[in-house]
Design goal:
Largest sheet: 9 strands, mixed
Radius of gyration: 20 Å
Number of strands: 14
Helix content: 25-40%
Order of helices and strands: EHHHEHEHEEEHEHHEEEEEHEE
Structural class: alpha/beta
Distance between the termini: 29 Å
Bound molecules: N,N,N-trimethyl-histidine
C-alpha cells in the first residue's frame, strides 16, 4: 500500500481545519471529518434510508451503463477516488474485466482500504490491486499513471467541495490525464426542494447523528468538551448556490474548550456551525465546469427518474 498521507499529516490537518473553522465567522468545519469508524457506519445506514436516493440511483445508472462505460473506455487501470463504495466498485470491475489490469482505490484513511483491497484482489484474479492512501485534493499528481486509466469519482462527493475547490480539483485532475484516460463522475441533480431536504434530514434521525458525529470526533481527537446533544441538526436548501447545507445549531449559549488546541470558542444560543455543503447540479453547469478545466463531456447518463447523473469526460 502506498502512503502519501500519514496519520501524522491527518492529525495536523484536523488541527488546522478545526482551529480555522471555529475561529471563522460564521463557524464551519469541513465534511471530511465525519468519517471515523462510527461516522462511516452511519453513512452506510444513510445510504439505505428511504429518503436518501443518491446511492440507489447511482447504482441503477451503473447497472444500466457499465457495459457502455467499459466499451467507451477500454480501461486498463481503474483509479477510484474516495474508495469504499464496495458494491459500485464491483459493478465497474465486473464490466471492465476484459481490459482491466489494475485497480487503484484511493482514500485518506488506510483503515478500511487494506481489507477491502484484499477482498477485491481475491475476487478478481488477474487484476493487480494497489491501494493508495492519499488526499485527492493534494496528491493527484502522485497517483500511478499508466495507459488507459479510468478515474472514477462516485457518490456525488465532488458536491461537498465549494465551487473554487471543485475548479481546482478538476483542473488538477485534468493535468494528470492523457488522451486515453477518462473521468467517470457521479453528481446529484437539482430537484424538488422537499425531496432534497428530506434526503439530508431523515425521519429516523440518522443524518442528524452523522452530522453530530463530527463533534464526537473532535472531542476524542482534540480533547474537546462539545456536548453533541446540545446541537440540533439543520438541513437547508440554498437556492442561490444550488446546494444543501448541513449545520449544527447550538440550542443554548455555551463555551467549548478544545484542549488539544488550547482554544476556547463561544457559541451564542441559536448559533449555527456549517458542517457540509452538498452541491446539486444541472447538466449545463457540469458541462461548463468540466470544460473550464479542459475536460469534455462525452456521455451523460441519468437514472430513469432523472435524480442522479453519471458523466464520462475526456481531455
Ligand atoms: C458523501 C457526498 C455522498 O453529500 O450526499 C450524506 C454525504 N451527507 N448525508 C452527500 C452525506 C449527508 C454525501 N456524500
Amino acid at each position: 500500500m502506498d502512503r502519501f498521507l500519514t496519520a501524522d499529516d491527518l492529525a495536523k490537518t484536523l488541527r488546522q481545519d478545526v482551529r480555522e473553522g471555529l475561529e471563522a465567522v460564521p463557524k464551519t468545519l469541513p465534511p471530511k471529518w465525519f468519517y471515523d469508524e462510527r461516522g462511516s457506519g452511519l453513512f452506510e445506514e444513510i445510504t439505505k434510508l428511504e429518503e436518501y436516493y443518491p446511492t440507489r440511483r447511482e447504482r441503477e445508472i451503473l447497472i444500466a451503463r457499465a457495459p457502455e462505460i467499459a466499451a467507451a473506455t477500454g480501461a486498463r487501470t481503474l483509479l477510484e477516488l474516495g474508495a469504499g463504495s464496495g458494491e459500485k466498485t464491483r459493478l465497474l470491475l465486473d464490466a471492465l474485466h476484459g481490459t482491466l489490469r489494475s485497480y487503484v482505490p484511493v482514500d485518506v484513511s488506510g483503515d478500511f482500504l487494506e481489507d477491502a483491497a484484499l477482498q477485491i484482489a481475491a475476487d478478481h484474479p488477474g487484476v493487480a490491486v494497489r491501494p493508495v492512501v492519499a488526499d485527492y485534493e493534494q496528491h493527484l499528481h502522485l497517483l500511478p499513471n499508466g495507459e488507459r486509466r479510468l478515474v472514477a469519482f462516485l457518490g456525488g462527493t465532488m458536491g461537498n467541495m465549494p465551487p473554487a475547490a471543485r475548479a481546482g480539483f478538476l483542473a488538477g485532475l485534468r493535468a494528470t490525464m492523457g488522451p486515453e484516460d477518462a473521468l467517470l463522475l457521479g453528481a446529484d441533480l437539482v430537484k424538488d426542494e422537499a425531496r432534497l431536504v428530506a434526503a439530508y434530514d431523515d425521519a429516523a434521525g440518522i443524518t442528524a447523528e452523522f452530522n453530530r458525529n463530527v463533534l464526537h470526533v473532535i472531542n476524542r481527537e482534540l480533547d474537546a468538551d462539545f456536548v453533541p446533544g446540545a446541537f440540533e441538526h439543520v438541513a437547508v436548501w440554498n437556492g442561490a448556490e444550488e446546494w444543501i447545507e448541513m449545520r449544527l445549531r447550538a440550542t443554548a449559549g455555551r463555551a467549548v474548550r478544545i484542549g488539544g488546541l488550547d482554544l476556547e470558542v463561544e457559541f451564542a444560543a441559536g448559533e449555527e456551525l456549517r458542517t457540509e455543503i452538498s452541491a446539486k447540479f444541472r447538466r449545463a453547469r457540469l458541462e461548463a465546469e468540466l470544460a473550464a478545466a479542459g475536460l469534455e463531456l462525452s456521455d451523460f447518463w441519468t437514472d430513469a427518474a432523472g435524480d442522479f447523473s453519471l458523466s464520462l469526460a475526456r481531455c
